[in-house]
Amino acid sequence: MATDLPRTAREIRLATRPEGLPERADFAVVEVPVPEPGPGQVLVRNRHFLVFPGLVTLIGGAAEGLPLPPLHAGDTLFGPAVGEVVAAPADSPLRPGTLVTHLLGWREYALVDAADCTPLDGTLPDPVAYLAQGSAPYGALTRLAGVRPGDTVLVTGAAGAVGTLAGQTARLLGAGRVIGTTGSPEKAERLVAELGYDAVLLRGTGRPFAEQLAGAAPEGIDVLVDTVGGEQLSAALGAARQGARFALVGALSGQLAPGRAGGVAPVEIDSFRLVVGGVSVRGYLGTEHPGVEEEWTARFGGWLRSGEIRFPHVRIPGIDRAPEALRELAGGRHFGAVVVESAG
After folding, report:
1. Which of 63, 153, 202, 244 could form a cystine bridge with 223, CB 3.0-4.6 A?
2. 337 shares a domain with 250
3. Higher pLDDT, 260 or 140
């Protein structure tokens, strides 16, 4: 192993499985030996890693049907990360200094199978942009909803990591009117001023959501990109035009609900309206669309370089602040993606 590497490094483990949304006390910052890579492995110093809502579901033990394993007490958390290879066997295809993405975030140093690392190729101008959660809404809009020129598109949870990119992407794909939803007046202002949303509906104002939607889209909506579910999904169905296409990419109403494990998101749907309106409702799962990630990255890079799209995100300094960052994400504190800057 390279002699300039530390002997130990920190990682975040789940200390106890919470009853509801995780608290800071449910996590532990643990000092562990820095490992040496064996055959087929590389050691990566993580620079940044993503905090994402799906961790709440994995922590809650409701991971059935998901492509990721549940987290148990004592497990180290994980998630998308960008880092630098700092040690590798002589025959490894990855050399020290190579920047890569992988799924072993939440630790300062990660021992990763070389086959599970993707070298950064410079398609995106900022390495952190490789953590953007834009492939899901892009895939939903291109593979499921088929957004058409002039469509009215509704994006729920528009101020989150997915929603901030979904609205911009819908516009770039030809949408004529883009409407978002959020629970914060400040975020609503930013969605309009910075990201080009035509209107933003606010939760928790006392005014029925369906009434707000009817005012913002008096002729109805053609496409829904839904990250929330619940009341907003029900109201969207009431506003659907004939032949509307609904793409579900998240279920935050269940994932971030206090007292739930994050694995269910019940909602009441008017099936009669689905039938007579010819409305399609489909869930988006990235593993079913293997070409989307590469396609999205290429288009995202071009849009970033031309200034046609923004990547809203907040950077949290220090791995020790990661547990609180997850709590803040669940509480809706931040705008866009939440990225931790590891101090490794």
Report:
1. 153
2. no
3. 140
pLDDT digits (tens, 9 = 90+) for 176-194: 999 999 999 999 999 999 9
14 pLDDT above the threshold of 80: yes
Tell me phi and psi for residue 299, to 5 degrees: -70, -40
CATH number at residue 283: 3.40.50.720
Please give the residue range of the domain that contains residue 76: 8-132+311-341
Do 241 and 249 form a contact (C-beta atoms < 8 A)? no
* Pairwise CA distance, residues 186 & 190, whole Å: 6
Structure tokens at 260: 């739930």
> Are 144 and 283 members of one domain?
yes
Secondary structure, 3-state, the chain: CCCCCCCEEEEEEECCCCCCCCCHHHEEEEEEECCCCCCCEEEEEEEEEEECCHHHHHHHCCCCCCCCCCCCCCCECCECEEEEEEECCCCCCCCCCCEEEECECCECEEEEEHHHCEECCCCCCCHHHHHCCCHHHHHHHHHHCCCCCCCEEEECCCCECCHHHHHHHHHHCCCCEEEEEECCHHHHHHHHHHHCCCEEEECCCCCCHHHHHHHHCCCCEEEEEECCCHHHHHHHHHCEEEEEEEEECCCHHHHCCCCCCCCCCCCCCCHHHHHHHCCEEEECCHHHCCCHHHHHHHHHHHHHHHCCCCCCEEEEECHHHHHHHHHHHHCCCCCEEEEEECCC
Global pTM reads 0.93
Reported as a single tens digit per residue, the pLDDT across 291-325 is 999 999 999 999 999 999 999 999 999 999 999 99
